[in-house]
């Protein structure tokens, strides 16, 4: 659908989907919504309305409805009939479970990457590593964390395994979303993270799958050791302010009977 001409129409121009245009429309919208949630454009508890999203991208409500289902399956929203979708807030226990899964998935994906990533990507890896070091030198925690997740995603994609990339993308997006609770950096942890990422990249370049998996697992374990206690503290602070006990983790849904 063509964008409206801002010079000739009073309606706002529909936002394009950029590099996602080659995906099915509902999948492209879902990817964009997940990115927006991860980047903090939608806060936990905030409502996302079908019509607002449809108007934003210049589409009907049908692909938006399908996109909502995909974002809900990814664990970011709860869809409510006739109301729209509400952004979820993961409990500390939910977050620990996400990071536990990421440790396994990331480790396996980096093992595959060390076996199969073409050498032509090695200079890009070195460039990304320098970007992470620069972010740490500037004390930009947000940029450093973004580079770390980008390295993992790129390696998973370059490995040639679509399954590995899809699994890393899904779990890593939830994990990156929870990193918003990092409101200060710990210099020793930042330097340890950089060291582990250097070890990961060197293991991939040297075709050492076991070392790559070990470094990847340690990267996630390091984040978990700081992130989960920080989220527990934030949950306790909110509960104290509201005069309510901290929210318990969501009970798993019962499987549907055949």
Question: What is the averaged pLDDT score?
Answer: 86
* Portion in beta strands: under 5%
The helical percent reads: 55-70%
Order of helices and strands: HEHHEEHHHHHH
| Major beta sheet, strand line-up | 1-3-2
Please state the structural category: mainly alpha
- Our measurement of the CA-to-CA distance between the termini, rounded to an integer number of angstroms, reads 41 Å
How large is the count of helical segments?
Answer: 9
Name the assembly state: single chain
Which radius of gyration do the C-alpha atoms yield? 20 Å
Stretches with pLDDT under 50, minimum 5 residues? 1-13
How many E-type strands?
A: 3
What would you note in describing this structure?
The protein is mainly alpha-helical and 258 residues long. Helix content is 64%, strand content 4%. The protein contains nine helices and three strands. It has helices at 25-38, 50-57, 61-73, 92-116, 122-137, 141-158, 162-178, 187-205, 209-242, and strands at 47-48, 77-80, 84-87. The protein has a three-stranded antiparallel beta sheet with strand order 1-3-2. Strand 2 and strand 3 form a beta hairpin. Helix 2 packs across helix 3 (61-73) and helix 4 (92-116) packs antiparallel against helix 7. It is globular, with a radius of gyration of 20 Å. The termini are far apart. The model is unreliable at 1-13 (pLDDT under 50).
């Amino acid at each position: 659908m063509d964008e409206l001409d801002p010079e000739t129409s009073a309606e706002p121009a529909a936002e394009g989907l950029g590099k996602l245009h080659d995906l099915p429309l509902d999948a492209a919208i879902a990817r964009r919504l997940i990115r927006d949630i991860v980047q903090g454009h939608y806060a936990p508890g905030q409502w996302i309305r079908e019509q607002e999203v449809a108007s934003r991208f210049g589409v009907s409500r049908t692909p938006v409805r399908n996109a909502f289902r995909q974002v809900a399956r990814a664990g970011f929203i709860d869809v409510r009939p006739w109301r729209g979708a509400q952004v979820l807030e993961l409990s500390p226990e939910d977050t620990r479970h996400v990071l536990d899964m990421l440790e396994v998935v990331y480790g396996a994906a980096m093992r595959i990457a060390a076996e199969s990533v073409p050498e032509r990507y090695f200079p890009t890896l070195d460039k990304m590593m320098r970007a992470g070091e620069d972010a740490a030198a500037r004390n930009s925690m947000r940029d450093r964390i973004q580079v770390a997740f980008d390295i993992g995603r790129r390696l998973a994609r370059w490995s040639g395994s679509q399954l590995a990339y899809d699994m890393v993308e899904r779990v890593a997006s939830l994990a990156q979303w929870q990193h918003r609770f990092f409101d200060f950096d710990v210099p020793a942890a930042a330097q340890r993270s950089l060291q582990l990422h250097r070890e990961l990249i060197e293991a991939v370049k040297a075709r050492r799958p076991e070392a790559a998996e070990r470094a990847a697992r340690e990267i996630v374990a390091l984040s978990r050791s700081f992130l989960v206690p920080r989220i527990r503290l934030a949950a306790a602070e909110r509960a104290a302010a509201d005069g309510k006990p901290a929210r318990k983790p969501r009970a798993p849904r019962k499987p549907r009977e055949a």
